[in-house]
Amino acid sequence: MTDKLDKSSTGGAPPEDTPQVAKDSGFSGPPEAIKAIPVRHYGRWVSAVIVIALLALLVNAFANGDIQWNTVGDQLFNSTVIAGAGRTLLISVLSMVLGVVLGVVLAVMRLSKNPVTSTVAWLYIWFFRGTPVYVQLLMWFNLALIFPVLNLGPIYKDEMTDVMTPFMCALLGLGLNEAAYMAEICRAGLLAVDEGQTEASHALGMSHAKTLRRIVIPQAMRVIVPPTGNEFINMLKTSSLVYVVTYNELLRSTSVIGSSSFAVMELLFVASIWYLVMTSVFSVFQYYLERYYARGSSRSLPPTVFQKIRTNLLSIGRERRSS
Asked: What's the pLDDT at 301?
């Protein structure tokens, strides 16, 4: 928005005929400097005051609520809570690895010219995206009702209740569900690569598998990495659903402690703090991973976190010196 000009104090910008008038009147001095008056944004001040007032009310409500804040600090590094956070991290990483690997396979199958493989991939994606992950976890947990015994012939045979441990139910429930979403993300990344790249690779004598591994996938990673990082952060939070299959992850650990010590809300705060810590760490990791794969498309890489901080500090220093 342009600033208003105080024409009354300065006489405004001289018209085109000013030099002639000045010449006629005998005035030969330099023109006066234009005084710019910033536009007043009263709405911004009002909205800022309202937001600050609401935040103050929220902070006051939490400060005066029936919450033992010292309990939050005492339980934050409880060994049971830390073990639960470690299991949350473990099941999230393993489920994500399973989801990414299976998602790449499903994406390739979906893009295949073979109608059988493409249809099977489509059915898989349709089923796992169409049913809630909570329901899928319960289905894995109760799989023994359909298959009492897992019989793989001479390779392996055991009772299904012994096979489907809480960890296995959580891994299959989260990993297979994630694979459906990763398949669509990978498919979008593969389709983003120009077909000319594949044609040129085949013209050079590369096989289809080698073209996919050496040419297409590295270029597709620039498109695949951002949503994959987002999916992993979402997985950290979705892993709390494995509570239903009695897997002792972070939320279950804090809930057990909270129920026994009558500090339910305090332990929920503890769980929230650990979830925030984990998602913050992996958000930074995602940023650097995106920066790495941006090398092939950007002329200048995005600044790192330390470079951003250094730039901001230098700009503040320059403003102070100039003022």
From this structure: 67
Give bridge partners of residue 157 from the DSSP assignment: 151
CA pair distance 17, 208, nearest whole angstrom: 75
What one-letter code names the amino acid at 226? P
Tokens for 119?
Answer: 């249809």
Altogether, the residues listed in the chain come to a count of: 323
Helix, strand, coil percent values for the chain (each to nearest 5): 75, 5, 20
Residue 144 exposed, middle or buried by CB count within 10 Å (0-12, 13-18, 19+): middle
- C-alpha span between 126 and 197 (Å, rounded): 30
Q: What pLDDT shows up at residue 27? A: 56
Name the packing angle between helices 79-111 and 264-293 (round to 10°): 40
Question: What Rg do the C-alpha atoms of the chain give, in angstroms?
Answer: 31
Percent of the chain residues topping a pLDDT of 90: 33
- Of 269, 263, 233, 235, whose CA–CA distance to 251 is shortest? 269
Q: What is the mean pLDDT of residues 161-171?
A: 91
Higher confidence at residue 220 or residue 184? 184
Handedness of CA 281, 283, 289, 295 (dihedral sign): negative
Report the chain's terminal Cα–Cα distance, integer Å: 24
Q: Which residue, among 242, 231, 319, has the nearest Cα to 279 in the 3D structure?
A: 231
Q: Which two tokens stand for residue 36?
A: 């710019």
Q: Which stretches does DSSP call E strand in the chain?
A: 4-5, 36-37, 149-151, 157-159
**Residue 14 three-state SS:** coil
Angle at 144 between CA 142 and CA 148, to 5 degrees: 170
218 to each of 33, 242, 279, how far by Cα in Å?
58, 34, 26
Q: Which of 301, 285, 299, 302 is nearest to 225 (CA)?
A: 285
